[in-house]
Design goal:
The complex is a heterodimer. Chain A contains 13 helices and no strands. By secondary structure, chain A is mostly helical. Chain A has a single domain, classed as ABC transporter involved in vitamin B12 uptake, BtuC (Orthogonal Bundle). In chain A, helix 1 packs across helix 7 (about 155-175), helix 2 crosses helix 10 and helix 11 (about 235-245) packs across helix 12. Chain B is an all-alpha fold. Chain B has a two-stranded antiparallel sheet. The longest helix of chain B is centred in the middle third of the chain and has 30 residues, at about 135-165. The N and C termini of chain B lie close together (about 10 Å). The model of chain B is unreliable at about 1-5 (pLDDT under 50). Classes of the chains: A mainly alpha, B mainly alpha. Chains A and B meet through helix 3, helix 4, helix 11 and helix 13 of A and strand 1, helix 7, helix 13 and helix 15 of B.
């Protein structure tokens, strides 16, 4: 009982890294004043970019760490390119952010599915077989693990912790972060203070998208390591967007928050398994699964309500979130 | 602009356009559409193998879009019906978006409408208990009532928290979509005890046209199997006209615009902002419920978590592209349906997977969204070395 429960929690921890990437990326973008609803599509494309790279190098003679690094780079680049499309439309062309984001999600989801089903770009036999083991360092090397879910805590899981910590450090302890937050709060004031608003917005959105894209690759290669995994990533994108509010726009806060999400999200598959293993004879009704699946969303709603009821001044979204900046507007 | 002699003077200068003539603004958008379709062909060469081998088939590729909507009588009717339902959902979003209440939950509200309609049919139509079986025309009307109520309630929940505590409605409504999807799964698990989760479709006698049309027998032109399509199109056209009048000529419509501009202005003008928000959101949910009824009783005749087909999100684009003008939405919903309808054609003719058309739709829409910039702003280029220009 205890063992399977612990295994479940470790699995939830592994799952949470997907959301940490997505939410950290979204926070960077929102801190620059851009509500990016394209994150689900960006995460799909990040996964595709990484897998394209792994298809190219996965069976080569390169050292393992280089293959992992190239995969991560591929995911980051592809996702950042999606971010470039988004920032060109919303920063330079000042398009509506909600509409652009939703369209980017349509595009990203569609394009990633096309790429994944076409062997010319992503070969299912290559991208998962060997790279999986390289990504699942260090636990993959250990024989006879007591908790099989430890496998999911690979290289990219630890990278997620670093990325979230580093983002918080940059945002709150450096001049670059201060400038970025100023742009998100009031771009006109930041502009008057000599900050290059356009460059700042582009950088934050593209890097943010790149980080979110890593979440897609992590989920496909490291966490689930299955060729079907690419189909469900968009849901995690939406959860990441919601997680930003729950984490109060602080990257390091995404770590505990994502873990709670992970526990709730994986409970629909894990609880029936635990019950089956430990309590023979107990049959759970079929209708329980949809109720368990509702939990993370109901929990998000509860958190949204609670954070709005408390309504503390330091826990508010960036003031110019969702508005385009045109210097000559008054 | 300051420091006229500075060498860092930008060589591009933007300014906001004053009102552009309607001809130009339409022309710019059409140009965006054409460029988007051109970009699609570049992608098509890259992603579609038969096209790469034989580039001369590109004409065939574009013909697919046309054929998907207009090559057969049944396709034309499908096209009309699908545009109508999409239009209906976009109409529901229009008043709340004008009020700057970002309702991303149309998907869930429509889905709850479908679920309510099917639930009424299940419990009162003789499926659950053969002894409880109302006449089918009454069932149809009860289904309508249930759909309207379900859509309204689902939309009002986030709105109540919005007016009470200013809870972020974009994400609240988004999460409500997922709750609705799992609520559908819960109902299916309860209704279908064998675990297959597949609910059999409504019979021909239970569907929309039978429930409504038999009372109009003789008055209504009968189109045989296309009765549903025509009926849905007419209902939505009626709603469009009502919405146009409501937004343009009523006090409520005016209040919506004022609240959208500024809550404070609205309060000074003596408008009860909270009441206006709740009323408008309820109206939005009501129309979403109607769309759910059309889908549930008329088109799908069953319910699944995918019943709303992602149209709740697509409708946001439809409404925004039409600048929240109900009449323009007829054009934009037709355009989006037209682009989606090429799907099956391209899939068949070029033997590609189903997700590719989504890519084309995404690309075309990004171009159309981008073209809005040239409607709203004008770009002035400066020749280097000629010194600063003064724009007043």
């Amino acid at each position: 009982m205890f063992d399977s429960l612990l295994n479940y929690l470790i699995g939830a921890l592994g799952f949470s890294a997907t959301l940490v990437y997505g939410a950290t990326g979204e926070i960077l973008s929102e801190k620059a004043g851009h509500l990016n609803l394209g994150i689900p599509g960006v995460m799909c494309m990040g996964g595709a970019g990484g897998c394209i790279m792994l298809t190219l190098v996965g069976q080569s003679e390169l050292p393992h760490f280089l293959i992992v690094l190239l995969g991560i780079l591929g995911a980051f680049t592809m996702a950042a390119l999606m971010g470039l499309i988004y920032s060109f439309l919303t920063v330079t062309l000042r398009a509506n952010q909600n509409v652009t984001g939703l369209t980017l999600t349509t595009l990203g989801m569609g394009l990633s599915k096309v790429l994944f089903t076409d062997v010319r770009f992503i070969d299912q036999n290559v991208y998962i077989d060997l790279p999986k083991h390289y990504f699942r360092f260090p636990f993959d090397a250990i024989e006879g693990l007591k908790y099989p879910n430890l496998l999911t805590l690979g290289v990219m899981f630890f990278l997620a912790l670093i990325v979230a910590g580093a983002s918080s450090f940059i945002l709150y302890k450096t001049r670059v972060g201060l400038n970025l937050r100023a742009v998100g709060e009031n771009p006109a004031t930041a502009d008057a203070a000599g900050i290059n608003v356009v460059r700042c917005k582009y950088a934050a959105t593209c890097i943010g998208c790149g980080i979110a894209g890593l979440g897609g690759l992590y989920y496909i290669i490291d966490f689930s390591a299955s060729i079907e995994a690419y189909k469900g990533i968009d849901t995690f994108g939406w959860l990441s967007v919601a997680l930003v509010i729950f984490a109060l726009w602080k990257p390091h806060m995404t770590l505990p928050c994502a873990f709670i999400f992970g526990v709730l999200y994986t409970c629909s598959s894990q609880i029936p398994k635990i019950v089956k293993d430990t309590m023979p004879g107990v049959v759970l009704p079929l209708s329980l699964t949809p109720i368990l699946r509702m939990l993370p969303y109901l929990f998000t709603i509860l958190m949204l309500i609670l954070s709005s009821v408390r309504n503390k001044r330091e826990n508010q979204p960036p003031a110019s979130l969702g508005l385009s900046y045109f210097r000559e507007d008054r | 602009m300051s420091a006229p002699s500075s060498h860092r003077e930008p060589w591009i200068h933007l300014s906001r356009k004053q009102a552009l003539s309607p001809v130009w603004s339409i022309l710019i958008r059409v140009l965006g559409l054409v460029l988007g379709l051109a970009a699609c062909s570049a992608l098509a060469f890259l992603l579609i193998e038969p096209l790469r081998d034989d580039p001369s088939r590109i004409g065939e590729f574009y013909k697919c879009f046309w054929d998907g909507s207009f090559s057969m009588e049944s396709y034309i009717w499908e096209f009309i019906m699908n545009s109508a339902v999409l239009l209906c959902i976009a109409l529901a979003l229009t008043p709340v978006f004008r009020m700057r209440y970002w309702n991303t939950g149309a998907e869930g509200q429509v889905l709850m409408g479908v679920l309510a309609a099917i639930a009424v049919n299940f419990y009162l139509g003789g499926r659950y208990d053969a002894s409880i079986k109302l006449p089918w025309d009454q069932v149809t009307l009860l289904m309508l009532a249930a759909s309207l109520i379900a859509g309204t309630v689902w939309a009002l929940i986030p709105a109540l928290f919005k007016v009470k505590w200013n809870t972020n409605e974009t994400l609240f409504t988004l999460m409500m979509n997922y709750v609705a999807m799992h609520a559908v799964d819960y109902c299916r698990a309860v209704w279908v005890p064998n675990g297959s989760m597949v609910l059999s479709k409504l019979t021909d006698r239970e569907r929309l046209r039978s429930g409504i049309l038999y009372k109009l027998h003789g008055i209504f032109p009968s189109l045989g199997k296309y009765n549903d399509h025509l009926l849905i199109a007419l209902i939505v056209l009626f709603v469009t006209a009502l919405m146009f009048v409501y937004l343009k000529y009523t006090k409520h419509g005016y209040e919506i615009n004022v609240v959208g501009e500024s809550h404070n202005t609205a309060r000074y003008a003596g408008i009860n902002v909270k009441k206006a928000i709740l009323r408008t959101v309820a109206l939005s949910g009501l129309i979403c419920g109607l769309a759910g009824w059309l889908l549930g009783a008329g088109i799908d005749r069953t319910v699944s978590p995918e019943s709303a087909k992602g149209w709740g999100f697509t409708a946001i684009l439809v409404a925004w592209l039409a600048k929240f003008n109900p009449v323009m939405m007829i054009v934009t919903s037709a355009l989006i349906t037209f682009l989606s309808a090429g799907k099956d054609q391209i899939t068949q003719v070029f033997n590609v997977k189903g997700a590719l058309p989504d890519v084309f739709i995404g690309v075309v829409l990004l171009f159309v969204i981008g073209s809005e910039f040239f409607v709203n702003y004008s770009v002035h280029f400066k020749k280097p070395g000629k010194g600063a220009h003064l724009h007043v």
